[in-house]
Amino acid sequence: MMKDLGVQPFLFPMPTYMIATYNENDTVDVMMMAWGGICAENMVALNLEADHKTVENIRKRQAFTLSVPGTDTLKESDFFGIASANKMADKFERSGLHAIKSERVDAPIISEYPLTMECTVVEMQEQPYGLRILGKIERVLADEKVLDAAGKIDAKKLNAFVFDQMQYGYYAIGEKVGQAWQSGKEWMKK
After folding, report:
1. DSSP label of 12
2. What is the 3-state secondary structure (H, E, C) of 48-83?
3. pLDDT of 130-170, one tens digit each?
4. What is the dihedral of CA 165, 170, 172, 176, to 10 degrees?
């Protein structure tokens, strides 16, 4: 039996994505995002606040990568959601993760993330509720460790996690695996 919860979007667990861009000095910037995702066969939508350093980078470079993090990078990913590149220019270096330059778009690929979409900006829409960035998926890259025998993504192997907006928790396969705004705090002290 279904229970009517009214209009309470914060009750809904959200998939987590990592947006990677290059700063003006070609250093890597990464932020965690939960408000957005795939919106069409070859399109993604990012719903962001315009004051993020990542948004500035997207405006300048007209490109970004959107990755699905696995639980093995939960602490680093949470840190990217805690730290602002506007205040901490070296946040990517503090994480210990690695990046390579995309061959298709002017954005970095984070080596440790098992699934990445390389995207170019199609449109930036100023909406009453914030900024919406539409990106065209130019290519999808997947680590072989998350593929099944047929070469398709295996969700269990991906080991992705969702963000529970009520408990501020991260959950994977029905199990809490971290605490939002807490799991990645160790890099704030560096």
Report:
1. S
2. ECCCCHHHHHHHHHCEEEEEECEHHHHHHHHHHHHC
3. 899 999 999 999 999 999 999 999 888 888 998 887 778 88
4. -110
